[in-house]
């Protein structure tokens, strides 16, 4: 049944380093009840080949391409949540040569599917002692259990009847209650009278009931995503903010923190599952369990897809004064769209919207909604002008006649937008300059987009992410334009010769910046960050330079902003000045160096007298060095070391065995000498610690 831990166990196996090292390629794919074979195969193909593209070519034979990619390789494929045997029949012809040592692992709730495929492993329920152990871990974490609560706590665990999902959900509820014996005994008594399936539903309902109102709205929003959907957290937080679902703490300054707190709260209550983390431990993707998603869907249907969403004040998280009443919002859903299509997109004719609601009703345009097949998107947009979110990355707007003819007039009625993600062949800032409330702008385009003075009109912009985006600026000494609220600026191609040193000062509160330098010829001899105090809020910086970058250019004699936590550099010469600037970063936790060469054709990196004080993650890829020297104090807090495609490197410094925090060394396409040195480091570390603290991960491919 649901909640036994099938997917959790499959992920544990899939992510185990010793198992992963046995296979050349791997893929983890979720099938679900409704599926597209073509999309499933494409998802497996992307994971097997490492491709990053999002779209399938129309004439592409995905099945044949996948078959060829797997041929003569030892592979591990996980097909999670398969509901019928026909899905397996559709897929199996694409998996060749299983007898070579490849493995296909399937999770399913359907016993007949499992028996037809193989001799299945049936997950059992947890014992009472195992249930109590899991409850303790969730409620008390590293604390000890108070003696007076042991008996009542064990009774709570016992009454969960061994179902892991019910245990963790009830743990999330009881962790919020008073730690009094009488309270816990009453909770255990309520559980004892319920059957297993009823308990599952009750656990989800109780978890929902214990949420504060804004968390309920956030959870229902997540539950509207497709079944088993891997939700990118960076997008989710921006969507919550745009729909005004998270508390606004005094001003807009802490909206991102507030949204992260909401995410953390839902994860801690086991209402959300973490499916992938970043190298620094932050959540990258999350999912919602089928049972919880089904609950959210039924909850929205019960309420006719309508919600009253209140504003919140600074700290008390209570609705604000009557002058600012709760908003009545409605999710755009299939029935609504069908009704609109039948009545010429006129809200006045729609029976599901009361006449007194028509003037004040606002619409929640969830990203899931835009995957609808036969929708006249332009007519819909014009009539639902109060929407705050448009996520159109899956729709080619150029294919609609109205947009192609006049994109600006198509978007002109959307004055309330706070989040816009759009796919267009050629984008112009003039289309969106009237959106004065816009916070997030994402554009996927095939043609390079040049900047426009219209960007300065959007004073509330917080996040800009545009593919093929080039800066070409004219210095306007007469008028200083500043975007104070801009926090992230991503995927920008910059010609440094076309901008002056005042440019980045126009974004004083940047926290994340990603740049690709496309040329540097004729640029003035100045630095981008002349002092570490400039952009002291910047925490993440990615810069890639073109091949042949000259170290004599004054720009790279600059220092980095002092509060950097994440730094990625590509295409540079690793001079003493650069290393000194990096080592001076007292808060740097993640460092990635890609396509790095060394001055004077001397491929040697000596950091013996350097100290990267709080660095936890170091990745070296295509670094052109053969010798690397360091001391046991160079990386005192390092946890993960990843080395990829460093063909000339002879060995990892032996001092890495003396780093007490080191947990993982991962080597990809490295020489046998490097692998041997890593093995020696592991053996010495294990001998010193008396346990297998350090993992060595060497994937086959």
UniProtKB/TrEMBL annotation:
All copies of domain Disease resistance protein winged helix, residue ranges: 225-295
Compartments where found: Membrane
Pfam assignment, any one: NB-ARC
MF annotations from Gene Ontology: ADP binding; ATP binding
An annotated GO cellular component: membrane
GO BP terms in the entry: defense response to other organism; defense response to virus
Protein name as catalogued: NB-ARC domain-containing protein
Organism: Solanum bulbocastanum (Wild potato)
């Amino acid at each position: 049944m649901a909640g036994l831990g099938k997917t959790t166990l499959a992920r544990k196996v899939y992510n185990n380093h010793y198992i992963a090292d046995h296979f050349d390629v791997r893929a983890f794919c979720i099938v679900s009840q409704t599926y597209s074979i073509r999309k499933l195969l494409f998802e497996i193909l992307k994971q097997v080949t490492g491709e990053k593209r999002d779209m399938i070519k129309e004439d592409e034979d995905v099945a044949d391409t996948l078959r060829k990619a797997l041929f003569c390789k030892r592979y591990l494929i996980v097909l999670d949540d398969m509901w019928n045997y026909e899905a397996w029949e559709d897929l199996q012809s694409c998996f060749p040569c299983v007898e070579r040592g490849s493995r296909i692992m399937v999770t399913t709730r359907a016993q007949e599917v499992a028996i037809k495929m193989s001799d299945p492993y049936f997950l059992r329920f947890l014992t009472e002692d195992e249930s109590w152990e899991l409850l303790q871990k969730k409620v008390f974490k590293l604390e000890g259990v108070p003696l007076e609560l042991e008996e009542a706590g064990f009774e709570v665990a016992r009454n969960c009847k061994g179902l892991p999902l019910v245990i963790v959900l009830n743990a999330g509820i009881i962790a919020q209650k008073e730690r009094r014996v009488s309270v816990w005994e009453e909770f255990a008594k309520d559980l004892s009278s319920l059957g297993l399936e009823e308990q599952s539903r009750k656990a989800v309902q109780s978890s929902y009931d214990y949420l504060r109102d804004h968390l309920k709205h956030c959870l229902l929003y997540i539950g509207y995503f497709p079944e088993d959907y891997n939700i990118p957290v960076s997008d989710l937080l921006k969507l919550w903010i745009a729909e005004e679902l998270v508390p606004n703490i005094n001003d807009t300054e802490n909206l991102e923190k507030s949204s992260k707190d909401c995410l953390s709260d839902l994860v801690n209550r086991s209402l959300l599952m973490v499916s992938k983390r970043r190298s620094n431990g932050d959540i990258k993707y999350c999912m919602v369990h089928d049972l919880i998603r089904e609950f959210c869907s039924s909850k929205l249907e019960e309420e006719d897809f309508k919600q009253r969403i209140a504003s919140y004040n600074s700290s008390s998280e209570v609705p604000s004064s009557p002058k600012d009443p709760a908003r009545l919002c409605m999710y755009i859903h299939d029935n609504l769209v069908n009704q609109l299509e039948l009545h010429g997109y006129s809200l006045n004719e729609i029976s599901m919207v009361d006449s007194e609601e028509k003037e004040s009703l606002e619409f929640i345009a969830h990203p899931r909604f835009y995957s609808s097949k036969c929708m006249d998107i332009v007519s819909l947009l014009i009539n639902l002008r109060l929407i705050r979110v448009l996520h159109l990355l899956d729709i080619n707007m150029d294919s609609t006649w109205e947009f192609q003819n006049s994109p600006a007039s198509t978007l002109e009625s959307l004055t309330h937008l706070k989040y816009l993600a759009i796919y267009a062949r050629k984008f112009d800032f003039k289309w969106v300059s009237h959106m004065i409330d816009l916070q997030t702008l994402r554009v996927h385009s095939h043609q390079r987009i040049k900047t426009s003075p219209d960007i300065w009109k959007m004073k509330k912009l917080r996040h800009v992410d545009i593919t093929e985006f080039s800066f070409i600026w004219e210095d306007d000494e007469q008028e200083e334009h500043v975007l104070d609220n801009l926090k992230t600026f991503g995927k920008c191609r910059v010609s440094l010769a076309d901008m002056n040193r005042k440019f980045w000062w126009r974004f004083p509160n940047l926290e994340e910046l990603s740049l690709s330098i496309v040329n540097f010829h004729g640029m003035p001899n100045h630095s981008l960050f002349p002092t570490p105090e400039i952009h002291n809020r910047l925490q993440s910086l990615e810069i890639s330079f073109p091949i042949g970058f000259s170290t004599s250019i004054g720009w790279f004699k600059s220092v980095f902003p002092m509060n950097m936590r994440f730094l990625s550099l590509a295409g540079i010469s690793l001079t003493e000045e650069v290393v000194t600037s990096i080592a001076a970063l007292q808060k740097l936790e993640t460092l990635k160096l890609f396509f790095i060469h060394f001055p004077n054709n001397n491929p040697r990196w000596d950091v013996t007298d350097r100290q990267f004080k709080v660095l936890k993650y170091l990745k070296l890829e295509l670094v052109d060095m053969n010798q690397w020297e360091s001391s046991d104090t160079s990386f005192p807090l390092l946890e993960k070391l990843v080395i990829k495609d460093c063909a000339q490197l002879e060995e990892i410094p032996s001092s890495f065995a003396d780093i007490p925090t080191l947990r993982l060394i991962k080597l990809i396409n490295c020489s046998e000498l490097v692998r041997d040195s890593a093995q020696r480091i592991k053996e010495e570390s294990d001998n010193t610690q008396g346990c297998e603290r350090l993992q060595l991960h060497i994937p086959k491919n």
